[in-house]
Amino acid sequence: MADQLSKVFATLSDPTRRDIVARLSVADATVNELAEPYDVSVQAVSKHLKVLEDSGLVTRTREAQRRPVHLEDKVFDLMTKWIDRYRQQAEQRYQRLDAVLEQMDEDEPTSREGA
């Protein structure tokens, strides 16, 4: 069984699922509402939602006869922390490189000194 972070990234590799997540970031929606803009069946959208549910990105609730799909923001915290860790490491490497290049510029004799 893959860890949750791997599941989330695998789930978001599909453009339809990414679009569903984007739409749910605006407001909760039912399966029928989510299926409207796509040229696929409601069942196909339901399968996408099942994958999104399995990864923890969405949950379904019951409000009387309505079953809205809700985007779970805690999963995005997990992704953001993972991405930020590697972004910070990359920034630190670039800062070290900048320092080395700056030192090289300071150590390099100017062309006028040799003339």
What does this 3D model show about the protein?
The chain has 115 residues and is mainly alpha-helical. Helices cover 62% and strands 5% of the residues. It has a two-stranded antiparallel ribbon with strand order 1-2. Strand 1 (58-60) and strand 2 form a beta hairpin. The termini are far apart. 15% of the residues are buried.
Q: How are the elements arranged and paired?
A:
Layout: H1 4-11, H2 15-24, H3 31-35, H4 42-54, E1 58-60, E2 69-71, H5 73-107
Task: Determine the fraction of residues in helical runs and give it as a percent range.
Answer: 55-70%
| Strand runs, count | 2
Structural class, by secondary structure, is: mainly alpha
**Share of residues in strands:** 5-15%
Distance between the termini: 69 Å
**H-E string:** HHHHEEH
Calculate Rg over CA atoms: 24 Å
Low-confidence stretches: none
Give the averaged pLDDT, no decimals: 88
SS element count, helices = 5
